[in-house]
Amino acid sequence: MFSLPTPPSEPDPRWTPAIATVSLGAAHLHSLPAKIEAAAQNGQKGLELFHDDLAHFAKKLRDQLDHGEKIRSDRDYEIDAAHAIRKLCAQKDLQILALQPFRHFEGLLDPDEHARRIHELEHWAELCRILGDNVCILIPSSFLDASQITGDRDRLVSDLREAADVTFPVRIAYEALAWGTYVNTWEQSWEIVQRANRPNLGICLDTFNIAARVWADPTSPTGRLPAHADRELSKSMERLVCDVDPDRVWMVQLADGERVDPNVPFLQTLGAPKLLSWSRNARLFPCEEERGGYLPILTVADACLRGLGYRGWVSMEVFSRTTSDAKPSVPNDHAARAAKSWQGLLHQLDSRKIG
């Protein structure tokens, strides 16, 4: 059954709502045009475009046009796709705010692999210039094995500085993943961005990654770390409000986490960090406690938005096993959930006392 679109509400002048295309369905199951339509119908104003969606869109163009001749490269068709996607979004009054994720970039020990990734980054910068006037590339912290990357802070700073120089003036948002090998807190990502000191390099703050690292433990029967985690999270948010320059925050991402049985199969994936397996399968939109949401997301969101004085894009980024459902209603169902979540979060934020 298809759910009705969420009626648009009055926009909040402080923040502009967006959603990641990955949150609207799996790329191989749900078309990008369907996701664009769902986002527009449910009040979102922007899209974080996942490269998987762009690549699938490009593949369809190739299948339609090259008739097996293989005259043009995958990158050529991705460029064509970027032009078409921008046009589709413009028709629905949607803006692309980011292309992501440019994974496993910083700290590579193999110089040939580093050079290959720089070449790929140049291609991504070209895609961003086509997709919109102010699209950024999101680089999440690497979670490759320690045998493949270094944690040397000077090297990480140098790599991010090089990335910013290569893509300039296209912006780069660096995000600390909770399961990152060497960079897994916002404090570490902010230090690297400050030291790299490039005008087009900033950070992305993600409520799920912040809470997951400092507060959560999906393998515990309680779903959380011991009681001192409340204090540690509070201190971290105080530091964030005091230390981060809001003008260097390129976007804020919102997501909660689902309380799961520690023995659930996806947490038993061999070779994968538990927080990664949990994140890929069990994120929720904020204010979805009825679905099992339990992280202190309101505390984190309040610091990132009101406490910091941030103004700009706020994007729902939810990875979930529910996006792998083949039902055609998935994009609209998830877009409607996101819209309801955004309104609920705004209400709760405005009901809280500042400070």
Automatic annotation (TrEMBL):
Protein name (Swiss-Prot/TrEMBL): Xylose isomerase-like TIM barrel domain-containing protein
InterPro entries: IolE/XylAMocC-like, Xyl_isomerase-like_sf, Xyl_isomerase-like_TIM-brl
A Pfam family recorded for this sequence: AP_endonuc_2
Gene3D superfamilies hit by this protein: Divalent-metal-dependent TIM barrel enzymes (3.20.20.150)
Species of origin: Penicillium oxalicum (strain 114-2 / CGMCC 5302) (Penicillium decumbens)
UniProt domain Xylose isomerase-like TIM barrel: residue ranges: 36-337
